[in-house]
Amino acid sequence: MTDSRTVASTQPGAENRSESVDADSGWYLYGIIRQIDQGEARALLGSSTQREGGEPGYAIDDDKSVQILKWADLAAIVRRVSLDDFAPEPLEARLRDPAWLEAMVRSHNEVIASIHEEQAILPSKFGCVYQSAEDVTAALEQAHDALTAQLARVDQCDEWAVHLYADRPAVQKRLEAEHPSVQRLQQEVSAAPPGRAFFLRRKLTDELDSVTRQATSDAAEALSEELRRWAVAEERSSVARVAPDSSGEVEILRAAFLVHRESQDAFLENVWTWNERQEGLRCTHSGPWPPYSFAVLADKES
After folding, report:
1. Inter-helix orientation angle 180-191/168-178, to 10°
2. Structural domain count of the chain
């Protein structure tokens, strides 16, 4: 069987060919796509390298241009890097350099975003480096079926981040006027003698706190359920369990939704109208992004 492990260079006039790699060179992984031919590679990756070189600190020389490593019907978006630069000790030192880190993360995301505009990509996490081309293509071979299925799922889809915040004082005020158990306790406090009223007020405080937590939890679940109607998939993240900020707001939902572009308008309309319907709740969103939360790659760092 012919070995399909090859490198497609983005340099003008280059042919699809195997690359000899120095022993101290590795391959930085941006993500996985379906295999494309050399002409498509030039068109797709040429814009990536040009965009990446558009700002100081992003330039990639001809030796380290973004390239493709192919295996079967899959391809890895990669570029050559020095393994020494990504060894644990020097990498740890560089990660403490805000300017270097910002430039590298922006570079990483811009390459992925430029490809995402044109076709489906499974983004890799930042800083994933393989020691050799064979290691990259072996990973593609090992996870071929799972990667193919994921590419089919994210095709023509974007990721949207959604956050839901609750203004606890506003929610509590509404519950004081509406919730049956809270109203009942308020009536008991009003009718009780001073000694019993003291204990009932403590009970009322606990009950109001409990129903507020339940109300905000129910609101988060309701929003999640509604948005899932227009999404291919959802990934939830833990929210910070901290005291409310000065505005009294707490985050009660942090989620990423994979949304097909045909459903984008309906999805966003539900996000926008949520703020109009829910007193004391505020929903924010950002996107569209490449499907960072929906790519499960067998990443291997050097």
Report:
1. 70
2. 2
Please indicate, yes or no, whether residues 107 and 202 belong to a single structural domain of this protein. no
Q: Where do runs of H (alpha helix) occur along the chain?
A: 38-52, 88-95, 98-116, 133-142, 144-154, 168-178, 180-191, 194-228, 264-277
Q: Which two tokens stand for residue 91?
A: 């990498």
> In whole angstroms, what is the distance from residue 203 CA to residue 158 CA?
47
57 or 42: which leads in pLDDT? 42
Instruction: Give the confidence band of 195 by pLDDT, cuts at 50, 70, 90.
Output: confident
Mean per-residue pLDDT of the chain = 80
Describe the crossing of helices 98-116 and 88-95 by its angle, rounded to 10 degrees: 100
Contacts with 149 (C-beta within 8 Å, 6 or more apart), sequence order: none
The string of pLDDT tens digits covering residues 253-263 is 999 999 999 99
* 1 within a domain of the structure (yes/no): no
| Model pLDDT for residues 269-293, shown as the tens digit of each residue | 999 888 777 778 889 999 999 999 9
What would the DSSP string read from start to end of 78-102?
Answer: EEEEEGGGGSHHHHHHHHT-HHHHH
Burial class (CB in 10 A: 0-12, 13-18, 19+), 300: middle
Length reported for the chain: 302
First-to-last alpha carbon distance for the chain, in angstroms, is 30
| One domain, residues 146 and 163 | no
User: Which domain range does residue 234 map to?
Assistant: 158-293
3-state secondary structure of 166: strand
